[in-house]
Predict the structure.
Amino acid sequence: MRRLIENKILKAEAGAVRFPPSGGFREGFHQRLTPTSSFPKEGIARAATLLSCTKSLLILLIITCAAISAQAQHAGYTQLSDLTKFKQQFAEVAAKTNSIKSDFTQDKNLSMLSEKITSKGKFWYRKPNMLRMEYTQPFSYLMILNKDNVYIKDGQKENKVSTRSNKVFKQINKIVVDCIQGTALNSGDFKSAVYENKGTYLVSLSPVNKQLSDFFKTIEITVDKKDYSVNTIEMLEGTGDSTTLHFTNKEINANIPDAFFAIK
């Protein structure tokens, strides 16, 4: 039963399963899930984290970019009327950012689960388009983007996907380039807006690209005014599910060896 639920969640998240309005799996699991002896908390946590893997990679790629939301949700922020200066500064910082290293905490809220799922880990980014996102708690899960390939390691299982042959990862590569060049705010894939308070910017990107909108509805990212590094990212999906990443112990332009972007 536990594996069935995990697989159903994963397939639904990937778009491989479309639930009917009633009946079947959705009707059987209409109520919010709670840990049981047959499907314990760690199983729920694992399914919740795994279903976020591709979305997390997209989030990671947008770390040097920014994100979204309705103005009613921006309490304490005022909208920037002139984005020219911000975009220029943003592009300059992106050009100078060669690597990023950080710890992260991920909080996942699923409409079908009765409690928040929290995961922890580390990530590394290095130009040109090399990323490593490693979950360390409550279990180990590794995802690496190295130029034209994505590598995933779940326990003893390893998978490799070519970004050239996969439409989703082609889009990911495009986002990487936009982030590296500092042109994400001008991308036709997103509708953007920027807000500010005393210490942070809130950059808002709403996906207009169909492939991206299938992954998320809105993303809200707070950016530190001191160094333009990301403090938090909150992603809202059309289903009402949400994922929030909190970044701590950030190091900009740290030395990151090639070995970090390979599975061994």
Summary: The CA atoms of residues 111 and 240 lie 7 Å apart. The first helix runs from residue 2 to 14. The longest strand covers residues 99-109.
